[in-house]
Amino acid sequence: MKAFASTFAVLFLSIAVLFSQPAGEHARDQQMFDSLFHKVIIYYRAGQIDSMPHINRQLLELGQKISADSDMFMAYNAISNYFYARSDFGQSIEYMQKAADRAEHGYRKRLDMVYGNIGIHYDALDNTQLSLYYLRKAQQYADLDIRGDGRISDYSHLAVVYCKFNQPDSALKYIELADRLNRKHKYAYDFNQENILQAYAQVYDFLNEPELVSYYCLKGINFCDSLKLSNLNILRVYSHYLYVHGQNIKAKKYALLAYSSGKTRGSKKAIIEATDLLYHILTKQEMADSAFYYLRINHLYKDSLLQEEKTGQLQLIIVNQQIKETEEKAKAIQDEEQRRNNIQYALIGIGLVLFLIIFLLLSRTIVVSTRLIEIVGVIGLLILFEFIYLVLHPFLASLTNNSPLLMLLILVLIATVIVPLHHRLEARITHKLVEKNKAIRLAAAKRTIEKLEGGK
Prior knowledge:
Order of helices and strands: HHHHHHHHHHHHHHHHH
CATH architecture of the domain at 27-146: Alpha Horseshoe
Largest sheet: none
Helix content: over 70%
Number of strands: 0
Radius of gyration: 35 Å
CATH superfamily of the domain at 27-146: Tetratricopeptide repeat domain
Shape: elongated
CATH class of the domain at 27-146: Mainly Alpha
Low-confidence stretches: 1-21
Number of helices: 17
């Protein structure tokens, strides 16, 4: 029995070694993934959108290879960010929902952030009802958000949404929560603080507090300048606010700054908005030549943007198709790897059954009932049939064009060959075991008789 136990121990140790993944390779893949994700986030925040698709495809491939929900969550989040930056909000929501599915499955600490992002994307579509729904849903998982960045983003965007619902008091409550939380956690403080200061200005605009609107807009502009961040968004907000409230001289100053910032960043939409505002301001100031100058720039950029959008739509279709192909390819590789593993497991199962039967046949001390052999034989038959199915499945699928009926018929034909062979083999093994059992019992009887005779 000691030899039997030792053999089984060696066998199971070999199986463990066979299926253990090299830790070094996994660590390298994870390090590469983390590096690429950090790079794509930098590109996203810097507005270098064209650099994102290639990295996103690499993230998706590595994520599928590593097969961790956290990595797949980040890959889908990066892809969604790309489509959001391209203003393709339908696709951005689709991939953010895929990220949410991964978070629900095994990365729940980011549920707050991902549902908040879906709410932000719906707000970009001017669907404030769905935006509010997802932002509130995000709050249900706030306790899981250890870093706090998810809650900060949720609160600041809830403030904006409540402004659109004409509920400035609720908006003020949430933007103050976001501000306090951002000062406490400090995670991505600079990125969040810019949005918070801008949201403060929008909230106080609804509360009809012009001094506070100017205070927070100027504070936001100076904050961005001090850290060499883009102040484009808050310049657009402030210049438009000043124009609406009849402060044309100041509005012109900040519209010119927004125009300059838009040119620096290469944002055609920002340039179009700034030049349109400058045209209206200069027209009111009866500066026709200057107004016509900015109107001409406005039309040039609109034409350029229209052409770019047509090209961009085609590029978005291509990028989306490439991502889907990458997903399908990775899934096919994963399925094939799973199939190979299943085949190996089936082989191990067959090996264990054969080992057990051979051991029982060769053992000179163990008496085995025929019932046990029948049970082991049935288990072995089932494992063998599963092994044959796993090996032949790709060929059967190709041969029958994935027809379930034809595949079933072929498997039935295989079974009609295997089952009779199994019965014959079982009969022979049973016969040998019966003979062996008789020999063991006879030998035991002889030893008993000899002991009794020796005792006399």
